[in-house]
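Open question from group meeting: does this chain pack into something compact, or does most of it stay loose? Before anyone orders reagents, we agreed to write out a predicted structure and look at it together. Recording both the input and the output here so the notebook holds the full record.
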Amino acid sequence: MATAWSRRVGLAVLGGILAAGAVRADFVNEIIIPGSATDLSVGSGPNQNRLGGQFSDLYYDRANNVYYGLPDRGPGGGLVPYETRVQQFTLDVNPTTGAIGNFKLTRTIKFKTADGSAAFNGLNPRLLNGDPSVLGRSFDPEGFVKTASGNFLVSDEYGPSVYEFKPVKTGSGEVEARFVRAFTTPANLLPRQPDGALNYVDGRPTITTGRQDNRGFEGLTVSPDGTKAYAVLQDPLVNEGNPDGRRSRNVRVVEFDTKTGLSTAQYVYQLEALADINARIPGAADDFGANSQGRNVGVSGIIALDDHRFLVIERDNRGVGVEDPTGAVPVGSKRVFEIDLTGATDVSGLDLTGTNALPPGVVPVGKVLRLDLQAELAAAGLPVLEKYEGLAVGPQLLDGRFALLVGTDNDFSVTQTGVGEQFDVYTDGLGVRYTPLGDPSHSFAVIGGPDLGPVPAGFELLPSALYSFALDLPGFVPQAVPEPASLGLLAVGAAGLIVRLRRGRR
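Structure tokens returned:
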């Protein structure tokens, strides 16, 4: 975004930041990808080829030195068709400083059925299948891993599900990811109505057990030896809290055996206490309410450090984004924690319905702060964005540290009404203009307001951002090396893709 925009928003979120007690990592620099950038798909417009949301997860294939950025279900919020995909790209990382640059999109890979005849789609099951109990090809991808075989594991919020896909080169030379199998989702996570019927679309009070609506498997990683996969829910189960999961801190991390696809354990990750988050927000009027604990704060990403330690992104739903384009509301939590399963209780058979507390003897995962994203970025004069979701350990640097990469989901810079009517979101950091999708010749200060004419100079679509931090990771064990890539890399630049680079303090 424009320098003036960044400076103004950065100052707006500076208040209330508490860095004391954090194990610091050095911010290096950021890459800004404009909201108008496009991917390599055929078509035009945000629902066809806008390069948005691509860091809903982030993965580094260190064997082939390529990266994958995962968009979610698309700009329609499940109400508009969108063929789900993963973006493959290359990136330069300075081996001395960890500075990132030269982002190049190389492939746009769509998720397809086993025979390649149909694409998985971001439409919710009711709209895609005519039945909220039938998941079908409805897909909201949020977590991504490449296995040693070269296949992809992808976690999904709708189910919640974990799917395996095999990348296949088609006769036209393109690559698509074809469905191989689904892991078996533990029964206690499935969203059900009081009559026991599955319902993958509606929230409470229709759903009374299982994952909250739009709060399924938000992150996915695998153990270094590839034998275990770990999927983490964004928030507590709808029934596990008093009176429901919106007031609970207890989020489930689910362990799978990658050979069988069966769950082998569940652990409790406890979100930060709401009182601690609110203590970082200036002014009680902006505090999160008690029913925000397990809804407006949640987990966004997870990556394995070894067979029992992980890095996890925990964040609130505030910051610069389609719901708050100028960053007017104070932020409380954008943090990376290290967690440890050692000594944690397997809670696969434990039902926490109706309680916010863990029973005596039940031990959650260990947890320590490793990186305060909010404090680091504000100290660098940068805006704090809403959705930090992608997390990857990049190359090791010459001083022994690693480049830790964090990416954002910009929601395609699109907002929509409850009936799926979509609007592009433009801002200059001080004001906002909404336009009919793809038509900046008409703009509105508020949706439904008077037409104010063309979008003024200085207003831009909300961008995506990719950050590099230099971080000590003692004991880090990289994932088992995947088989050599057979797909090859194409140095293809996406139309309209202009990358802006900002340097940090190093």
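Observations to bring back to the group:
Residues 218 and 463 are 21 Å apart (CA to CA).
The helical segments are 3-12, 125-129, 274-278, 373-379.
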